Fold this sequence. Notes:
The protein is an alpha+beta fold. The chain contains nine helices and five strands, in the order αββααααααββαβα.
Amino acid sequence: MAYQAGGQRSQPRPVPEGPEAQAYLQDYATLLEALPFPSVVLDPCWDVVLSNTAFASLFRAVGPHPTAMPDDNFLRFVLFHPDASAVLGEHESRWFLPALAHFAAAVERHGHDHGLQSIRRDIAQDPIMEAAYRQGLPHWIRAVGERAVEHDGAVRPVIHPDPRWGATECRVVDETPRTLRDLGYTTMTLVLRPARRASLTGGRVARARRTASHLSVVPAPEA
Length: 223
């Protein structure tokens, strides 16, 4: 389920100081571009530092949004963009709730960060999302286990706009080299699998949920 965010767009992250760090990022961008799968480098608050053409291709049909574009802050995209469920299959359970769990963990580590504070304010402004964050998320983690929250190694459905991929799955791979990790960054690659002969039911359900009045893991508010 996606939500409209009313907060301010996060400020661009400063480029690492020093010619060696900048040169490394330039070369890593070249490496990233050579990958056939969507790949993105994220900072601790999920701001996009680098991304490749395959990443842009996966999200090329996504409409404009003032605060939640996938190439700006991927966490905001998953949580707030109304088109997220059109690309991220089974959006609520397989993408939204794990991302919300990662946000909660990031708040514990970097609660002073202005970008995270902005996301937290946007969550608080929506009573249903606030209920998901405070009540639904702990319930979901208890139900599925801590492992389901992790991104690395997870197999998740996606709906690629390119019909050669279509409704398929990807394995989320954290392949962060030491130098990037020392800079505080993480590389996330979505290793796409060949298109499976499956209906787009997952995508239709996700889009239907987007217009529903509440998350399925959160009790509906009383009228």
